[in-house]
Amino acid sequence: MVRLSAENLDISYGERKIVKNLSLQIPDKKITTIIGSNGCGKSTLLKALTRVIPHQGGSIVLDGEEIAKENTKLLARKMAILPQTPESAPGLTVGELVSYGRFPYQKGFGRLTAKDYEIINWALDVTGTQFFKYHPVDALSGGQRQRVWIAMALAQETEMIFLDEPTTYLDMAHQLEILELLQKLNQDQHRTIVMVLHDLNQASRFADHIIAMKSGEIVKSGTSQEVITPEVLKTVFRIDADIGIDPRTQKPICITYNLIKGA
Ligand SMILES: Nc1ncnc2c1ncn2[C@@H]1O[C@H](COP(=O)(O)OP(=O)(O)OP(=O)(O)O)[C@@H](O)[C@H]1O
Ligand SMILES: [Mg+2]
User: Fold this and answer.
1) 203: containing domain
2) Domain ABC transporter spans what residues (predicted)?
């Protein structure tokens, strides 16, 4: 089943077209990862799919409706996005920031209910940030802050979660913790996860579906086995990669690679 799809999508900044005639379907209740080189349009695509920015051509349809026509609060109950470089107001505490995730459920002047507090605490617990609840966000380390932003996205309790490079700033163990948490949310609660990842082996390991982009277009999409191949990586990143099979997950992994010089 597909709840979210795009057809012939064009996205521009001013005169400059970044995403060109792109069509995709996001498989429901699965994990999709988006890969591609710096500047190819991954964040731009993610922002348009979540209506953070408008698209100029084509259509994005969620549950049979053009996303552009969807009510803002309703949309925020369906999809949460963690941007690549999120920014919070100076002095805001972790608990306050995570509570913003409850905005789509608030009525009138928006007092938090017991249920809101319960979910905020759950989000702090599963991201390991409960300890920082009363600390200012700007006093945290990059990795701690990243986990707090993930907590805010989780507090939004949406069926679809979009994350733009969620493992940035995180050490190896915390990267795996976050990816495993997202995998658990997908498996136990059937949430649809769409994330941009630069680490190809993580993209391969955690994805049911991978989208490989180049210059605003999709070069290849499919399973890890279909996308993490020497041919696709050569086209997308101009690298000559040795691909093996991860003995623990049976997914393709990039063992080593070289740049293709003069290509
Ligand atoms: N707000 C903006 N205004 C104008 N141009 C922009 C804006 N945001 C991005 N761009 C340009 O659009 C192109 C795609 O940017 P985008 O952020 O989507 O790339 P990306 O694939 O996410 O790259 P990265 O891996 O570095 O995050 C880049 O050339 C960038 O300079
Ligand atoms: Mg980006």
Assistant:
1) 2-259
2) 4-240
